[in-house]
Model the fold of this input.
Amino acid sequence: MGYEKLDKRMLELKDEIFASVKESVAILSVKSEPKEGAPYGEEIQKALVHTLELGKKLGFKTGNVDNRVGWIEYGEGEEMVGVLGHLDVVPLGEGWEHDPLGCEVVDGKMYGRGVVDDKGPTIAAIYAMKAIKDLGLPIERRIRVLFGTDEENGSSCVKHYIANGGEKPTVGFTPDAEYPVIFCEKGQMFWEIEKEVTEKPRVNVISIKGGTAKNVVTPSCTMIVEGDFDFPQKDGFIVTKENGNTIIVSKGKGAHGSLPHLGVNAAIQLFTVLKDMDLGGDLQKMIDFVMDKINLETKGESLGICYEDEETGNTSLTLGVVDYTPEKIFFTLDIRYPKNADAGLMEERVKKAAAEYTLGARIEQTGKLVYVPKDSELVQKLMKVYKEETGRDDEPIAIGGGTYAKAFDNMVAFGPIFPGEPDVIHQPNEYGEVDSLMKSFQIVAAAMYELAKK
Done:
């Protein structure tokens, strides 16, 4: 069937949907100090209570797992369709031109922190259940909208839900990424490489510090050397003398850790010059490792971890944070890999390569590989809905980034951002085009129905 009746009902609910989104966005649900009954802070707890109250007002069954994950459910049946969203948001940041908690609509755009990520889509999914219920559409699977409250800081909320016996969806999606369907998210390994300094370099290097996060290409790297240090004048560097020290700033270009080829790594730019200066000591071992095993490569060839898969892409390798002091060497690697990779072998090879330079290597965090075949029921049904609702002929995509879909098996990311739309997630002036958001909400409703009717 087409989805005309469902689209129409969602449009009739438009004012109610956006009014509820506005109420939620007005709550500054940024993670803060835990309080009794509010594990992620009082404001996040307010957002959770608001959403649960909305579910009750609309006549649905609700649940609350220790104030970490809430859910709202409709229908009967042993199997359950899960729609996973989140109510926590990143800090507001500087540079807003519109009230970040106000949901102002200017030139057809609704501004506010969480309008797109992820309060808007989450609340719309609850109204999508109402539209399905109002129309009496026949479904064979229950529909449960789940909303976590710690997605922006590691998703401990959903881990708690699972660990405490929360029901897992049979099939589902998270409206917390982009269209059409993300059928694969690469596996992730975040490494920490470190060593206590026992052998000093031949000059007194006070520090080398660079990077903003483990999953960002090092955008800037600063080296401070005691006394006069003869560093050649080169593009991309600023060299100054201050308080008897030489300060060298290497300027690169940041990029997301899943797309290292789009950046210019400031630490590698610095080490390229230092490599031939033979500084000696443990510092030289760090420089040699980076230059021999990473250098300008972004696919991990020299580490022996380069995998290429026609369907899901290739390995990516990013040097992120660098922190050298006279006492300790520390730097991070962000490695993402396609479905044909051997994660165990990759781990062995990174550890072995680091050991050759007397460096210790350990995996600090992992992200599971998400792969739901294109011919699966889930991907096929979501693509059917997307194509019917938009008339577009886009293909499912594989990404290096990670989404909330990693939380459950047989779940993928689906919406709310359409191809070609600007990425305003986590930015000042986060906004959603009202018409575009409404179309996304209609697509979510159709997808929920399609998955629930088997």
Remarks:
- Residues 4-186+370-452 form a domain with the Aminopeptidase fold (CATH 3.40.630.10).
- The mean pLDDT is 96.
